[in-house]
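Notes, p. 3: input format for complexes.
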Amino acid sequence: MTPPDTADATPFRVPSSLTFASAAAPIALEAGALIHDYFKKGVATEYKADVDLVTEADRASEKLIAERMHAVFPAHGIYGEEGTRQRLNSEYRWYIDPLDGTTNFAHGFPVFCVSMGLEHRPAGLAENQDGTLIAAVLYDPTRDELFTAERGKGAYLNGRPIHVSQTANLCESLIATGFPSRKRHANPNVYFYQEFTLRSHGVRRAGSAAIDLAYVACGRFDAYWEFNLNPWDTTAGMLLVLEAGGTVTRFDGSPFRIDSREVLATNARIRDEMIRLFDNMFAGRDLEPLLTPQEFAAQRAARS
Ligand code: IPD
Ligand code: CA
Ligand code: CA
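Output follows (304 residues plus calcium ion):
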């Protein structure tokens, strides 16, 4: 594997005011190059559960990140999707998704990334209490896009400041969602997909929650929602959205917690409209009528 020229590239791609992100970005770039190499070669897929996939690339990326993190931030904790649990009583904790978008990756669909979010956990905080998200590093190797943010210091894409979109209405918005890979029958998201599709410019389902959040931060999407994500999927993207001027809540507008099972990220302008729609949908109000396949088939037969 040829690692990217991180020594040269990083200073221009992360503002020097972002101290944690500047130190962590070379690790994300190296892990991104590693998974990109696996992507080009092709890699066998295994099942973790139901349709939840994992590959050698996920594990190799997490191993590399954990080793590099330990060298750069020896006192920091790591909570990784593929099982790394290190120094979790530390004042700083990184949530690591070593490869977000594994299903895409396994099928050769080039939308995946490395995601790393840093939480500050002052002494005395109970395990079930959230600390403060203070840094985010997210790297998409297929587009060579490095997203970074730190609390109070803004969000950046390849070193340039990013901002959420200015779109003021849902009907003019492009939004995104994802569907869980576990307990699929127990999830109602397809109904929300339908309603938001009928009321917006469209809903994309690209298969990487972390990239979806980063795209809200840089204005490519106006909003994004999903059920049942984990802290490694959301922490980096959440800070990117907040630092880019957006909002991150649960579907009812209540505060998002690191382990929340609902995430709604918006450009702030369409937040209230989306929350109203969620509220109406959960109450069964104002649902758009939709032709069933059977009704459609009957109409088609009548026309022929
Ligand atoms: C998945 C992706 C996907 C989302 C799933 C996640 P993984 O993460 O973020 O977009 O819909 O819920 O589990 O398994 O590829 O790291
Ligand atoms: Ca993930
Ligand atoms: Ca993953």
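The chain is about 35% helix and 25% strand.
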